[in-house]
Design a protein that fits this description.
The complex is a heterodimer of chains A (about 350) and B (about 300). Chain A has about 350 residues and is an alpha/beta fold. Chain A folds into two domains: about 120 residues, 3-Layer(aba) Sandwich (Rossmann fold), CATH 3.40.50; about 190 residues, Dihydrodipicolinate Reductase, domain 2, CATH 3.30.360.10. Chain A contains eleven helices and 15 strands. A nine-stranded mixed β-sheet of chain A has the order 14-13-12-11-7-10-9-8-15. Chain A has a six-stranded parallel β-sheet with strand order 3-2-1-4-5-6, sandwiched between helices. Chain B has about 300 residues and is an alpha/beta fold. Chain B has a single domain, classed as NADP-dependent oxidoreductase domain (TIM Barrel, Alpha-Beta Barrel). Chain B contains 14 helices and nine strands. In chain B, helix 4 packs across helix 5, helix 8 crosses helix 10 and helix 13 packs parallel to helix 14. The chains are: A alpha/beta (about 350), B alpha/beta (about 300). Chains A and B meet through helix 1 and helix 2 of A and helix 1, helix 4, helix 5, helix 8 and helix 9 of B.
Chain lengths: ~350, ~300
């Protein structure tokens, strides 16, 4: 399987490295807007490099592409791949606004292409275990949740596309919050409405803090608090706490623990606590965390089987609609925005 | 001679591979530099005369303290670079190209590497190697006066280079560290079997590798079985880390397992409390009496994290 990579920043390098190391996949070409990075890469790795990615797709005819570029370029690049019948892995979030990705969505579904959007948290063992527990129904009806996503990233005005609303779609919600929103959507399904408030301090035209209330179609309600300017969070950390009819559940990057009022099937009453080491399994190559490898393997297998993964363009489009509603609500001072 | 036990450094900087909260609590405790120096001195008295050190900004203070202290001048330093989390944060702040440019801006590199900034396509391998060695020098600048025993390439970079299959970069790092710094060039990796094979292709044999190894296989890829098999069949010197699986395995059983394996050169131990340190060091030192018959005070390294 021939792989082409567009955008050799942090995430492009990571996925290129993992996929290139997987059995049966080979990096065949690179594209980036920076001549510096291209020159550097070219001098170290014997693969053709292109400033123009469309030219690369035409000439190299890869089987798969990794698109790890600023958000506003996702949809146009996805379209170029889809038109050529190339399956692609796209970094998250999907697009600046949901409507920007509708043409891409239509094309990939018409052609039944395998796509994946980089919501990697689903592949962290604690979060995937929590999904299994929630779906099993042992908790009973999920009533309410609260959740946080924090990282100590920004304590002065940021430089570059990540801090430009036109290019990134927004601030912490679009950048990191989408990971948590994807998990909530994965766990609880469709959203009826959201209400959001945002605050900026370090950034000029994007939000540094956001607080969102969600009401899901299944009746579950709860909030997400997010910031990329939260001290003492060396790494990006997500936590979700769930209250349900038959107990409660807490999940974060380190642990999933739940308490059941009464036993259900194999699950005993009382606490069950599963730490990451309880759930760990090795991967073909570990580069930046096994979750990325599990994710890339899932994508490659789906391409081989001509099937779909959970976080494909369609699924990420639903997440994007929620994100749009969050920004619309915040712009209207927290007025609820309906998604029904 | 590689020290057999190294004092780990993660606990000083809030790194905890099991629980981020516990990591933060420990970082708060060790925000008082005196407590860090106290632990280093205590370990030294216990015969652990070497430590692992990342190029974390706070490690600079430790570095300065060590140079002031006549007794600790001979403390063996095993440097890990670069401090990856800093660069990931910087990449989010200003992008990858700006990181490289800014890192080299204080050196004469601007002139040397003008062709890169101008975006010349005629860049050759030699130029890329120069950039890499300059980046190493920038990262090393404030640590080069220490009693450097080995310099490890951080697993984020080692494994990235491995994935991209560019082993020539390993060679550039290897040659530069041994020539310029007179230290053992070494590699931290999460992929032991693969890294040994890759290093072999550029003529690096019997390498010193720091990798996670513990009896439950936590953070061990591709599998515990493959890892053990690799230790048995390949020429490698292992510096064991995460031996306690982030506090998940008790020291006694953790080290029983570790010293049942061949080619364990050293182990790095991340202790925060004196009584933990005493207990852990003595368990290891007892094993070392019989392991390969090596003397106790110098010689193997395991990165273990223990609860405060």
């Amino acid at each position: 399987m021939r792989l082409a990579v567009v955008g050799i920043g942090k995430m492009g390098m990571l996925h290129a490295g993992i996929m290139n190391a997987l059995e049966g996949v080979e990096l065949c070409a690179l594209s980036d807007s920076s001549r510096f990075l291209l020159g550097f890469a070219k001098s170290l790795k014997d693969v053709p490099v292109y400033k123009n990615y469309e030219k690369m797709l035409d000439k190299e005819q890869p089987d798969i592409a990794v698109l790890a570029t600023p958000v506003f370029l996702h949809a146009p690049m996805g379209i170029e791949c889809a038109q050529r019948g190339i399956s692609f892995f796209l970094e998250k979030p999907l697009s600046v606004r949901a409507e920007d990705s509708e043409t891409m969505l239509k094309l990939v579904e018409e052609k039944n292409l395998t796509t994946m959007v980089g919501y990697m948290m689903r592949y962290i063992e604690t979060f995937s275990k929590a999904k299994e527990i929630i779906d099993s129904g042992v908790l009973g009806k999920i009533i309410n949740f609260n959740s946080t996503i924090y990282v100590a990233q920004l304590f002065k005005t940021g430089k570059g596309w990540r801090y430009d609303k036109e290019k990134a779609g927004g601030g912490v919600i679009s950048g990191q919050g989408t990971h948590a929103i994807d998990l909530l959507h994965w766990y609880f399904g469709d959203v009826d409405f959201v209400s959001a408030n945002m605050q900026s301090f370090y950034s000029e035209n994007v939000e540094d803090f956001a607080h969102v209330y969600f009401k899901f179609a299944n009746g579950t309600g709860g909030w997400l608090d997010s910031s990329w300017s939260k001290r003492h969070h060396r790494l990006l950390e997500v936590e979700i706490n769930v209250e349900a009819e038959n107990g409660n559940l807490t999940v974060n990057d380190d642990v999933v623990k739940f308490f059941l009022d009464s036993a259900v099937g194999d699950y005993p009453a009382g606490w069950t606590i599963l730490h990451k080491p309880d759930l760990f399994s090795g991967v073909e190559i570990d580069l930046g965390g096994p979750q990325y490898t599990r994710q890339d393997v899932d994508f490659i297998n789906a391409v081989r089987n001509k099937s779909q993964v959970g976080s494909n363009v369609r699924d990420a489009y639903e997440v994007q609609r929620i994100v749009d509603a969050i920004y619309d609500s915040a712009a209207a001072n927290g007025q609820p925005v309906n998604l029904k | 001679m590689i020290d057999q036990i190294l004092l780990g450094h993660n606990q000083f900087f809030g790194v905890n591979h099991l629980a981020a909260n516990a990591g933060n609590e420990r970082a708060a405790y060790f925000s008082d530099m005196d407590r860090i120096m106290e632990m280093i001195n205590f370990s030294y008295d216990q015969g652990v005369k070497a430590m692992m050190m990342s190029t974390h900004e706070r490690a600079l203070f430790i570095s300065e303290e060590l140079q002031k202290d006549a007794r600790l001048k001979d403390l063996g330093i095993y440097l890990l670079l670069p401090y990856a989390a800093k660069y990931i944060k910087m990449a989010n702040e200003k992008g990858l190209v700006n990181i490289i440019k800014d890192s080299l801006s204080d050196t004469t590199a601007k002139e040397k590497f003008g062709m890169f900034w101008r975006g010349s396509v005629g860049v050759v391998k030699k130029d890329a190697a120069k950039i890499i060695t300059s980046l190493i020098d920038v990262e090393m600048a404030q640590f080069s006066k220490l009693n450097l025993k080995a310099v490890f390439l951080h697993d984020v970079l080692t494994d990235l280079i491995l994935g991209w299959d560019m082993p020539e970069i390993f060679k550039v790092f290897y040659d530069h560290v041994s020539k310029r710094y007179n230290a053992i060039p070494a590699f931290c990796s999460k992929n032991l079997p693969k890294i040994i094979d890759s290093l072999e292709t550029v003529g690096i044999e019997n390498p010193l590798i720091m990798a996670s190894i513990n009896k439950i296989g936590y953070q061990v890829s591709p599998s515990l079985h493959a890892f053990e098999e690799c230790l048995r069949t390949k020429k490698v010197r292992l510096l064991a880390m995460s031996t306690l699986a982030a506090g998940y395995v008790k020291p006694k059983e953790a080290y029983e397992y570790l010293y049942s394996l061949p080619n364990i050169e050293s182990t790095v131990v991340g202790v925060s409390k004196k009584h933990h340190a005493t207990e852990t060091f003595s368990i290891i030192q007892n094993h070392l009496k019989t392991y390969k018959g090596l003397p106790v005070s110098n010689g193997v390294a395991a990165a273990a994290e223990m609860a405060v």
